């Protein structure tokens, strides 16, 4: 579950988010849309604890984000998978090693790492690319690696900020299919996008942001 209550955030005295309250239920898949500069990415930065709100409370994956101390932030982050528009993969590591990293940091034995990396690679249809380096893959494939990396730790919440921003329509559809699958398995999914095609005819809830203000919900 994700909940914001009266959340505001300003940069240099300019409000990027103004008194936002919204709630995404556990297991829901929902969207945030609005024009460029509306505050979508700022909202996501607050949710994955890269920034702190000036006012208001944020609950995510069962924790009050504002009350967290520096030792519990990494623990909460384990429950949040993030996907960005630019893939942020390590280009000097193979697809396999990019995805395995999270589990290795957590001290998993290599046998378990292997099993899980193969399982998520299968989910994104990239088992045959395990030994490739990211820059030898297409944009759509790189984004699928990012998604595999973000789900390997089995997060309860998945945040995707313009996940299809650099992709063509066919790859866009493929990526959305994967998010739907992730959601079907029980993960709460929140996607920020300026692209209406991602949520039109999905019957999912859509929060509309403009100028840092929530202008309501569509659908
Ligand atoms: N780190 C920052 N420093 C100063 N201003 C920022 C920063 N991040 C975002 N902003 C401003 O906040 C507003 C919202 O930006 P953003 O959240 O990136 O919008 P969106 O993702 O909807 O395009 C914009 O006016 C942007 O210039
Ligand atoms: Mg943005």
Bound molecules: adenosine-5'-diphosphate, magnesium ion
Quaternary class = single chain
The CATH topology of the largest domain comes to Rossmann fold
Rg over CA atoms, rounded to whole Å, is: 17 Å
Identify the overall geometry: globular
Mean pLDDT: 93
DSSP strand count: 10
What is the C-level CATH assignment of the largest domain? Alpha Beta
Distance between the termini: 20 Å
SS element count, helices: 6
- Return the string of H and E elements: EEEHEEHEHHHEHEEE
Unreliable stretches covering 5 or more consecutive residues:
none
Features:
single chain; 219 residues; alpha/beta; Rossmann fold; four-stranded antiparallel beta sheet; 6 helices; binds adenosine-5'-diphosphate; binds magnesium ion
Please give a structural write-up:
This protein is α/β, with parallel strands linked by helices and 219 residues long. It folds into two domains: 1-79 and 157-163 and 187-219, Rossmann fold, CATH 3.40.50; 85-154, no CATH class. 31% of the residues lie in helices and 27% in strands. It contains six helices and ten strands. The protein has helices spanning 40-47, 72-77, 95-105, 110-123, 139-151, 169-184, and strands at residues 2-11, 14-24, 29-33, 55-60, 63-64, 80-83, 157-161, 188-192, 206-210, 213-218. Strands 6-7-8-3-9-10 form a six-stranded mixed sheet, with helices on both faces. A four-stranded antiparallel sheet has the order 2-1-4-5, covered by helices on one side. The longest helix is centred in the last third of the chain and has 16 residues, at 169-184. It binds adenosine-5'-diphosphate and magnesium ion. Magnesium ion binds at residues 40-41, 161-162. Adenosine-5'-diphosphate is lined by residues 11-12, 16, 34, 36-42.
């Amino acid at each position: 579950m994700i909940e914001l209550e009266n959340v505001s955030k300003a940069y240099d005295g300019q409000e990027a988010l103004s008194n936002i309250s919204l709630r995404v239920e556990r297991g829901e898949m929902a969207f945030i849309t609005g024009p460029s500069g509306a505050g979508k990415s700022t909202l996501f930065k607050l949710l994955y604890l890269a920034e702190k709100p000036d006012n208001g409370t944020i609950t995510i994956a069962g924790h009050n984000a504002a009350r967290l101390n520096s030792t519990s932030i990494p623990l909460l982050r384990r429950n949040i998978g993030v996907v960005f528009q630019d893939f942020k993969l390590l280009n000097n590591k193979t697809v396999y090693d990019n995805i395995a990293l999270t589990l290795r940091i957590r001290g998993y034995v290599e046998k378990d790492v292997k099993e899980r990396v193969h399982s998520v690679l299968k989910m994104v249809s990239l088992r045959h690319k395990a030994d490739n380096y990211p820059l030898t893959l297409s944009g759509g494939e790189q984004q699928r690696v990012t998604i595999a990396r973000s789900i390997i730790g089995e997060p309860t919440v998945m945040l995707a900020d313009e996940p299809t921003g650099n992709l063509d329509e066919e790859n866009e559809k493929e990526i959305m299919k994967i998010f739907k699958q992730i959601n079907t398995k029980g993960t709460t999914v929140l996607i920020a996008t300026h692209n209406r095609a991602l949520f039109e005819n999905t019957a999912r809830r859509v929060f509309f942001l403009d100028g840092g203000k929530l202008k309501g919900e569509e659908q």
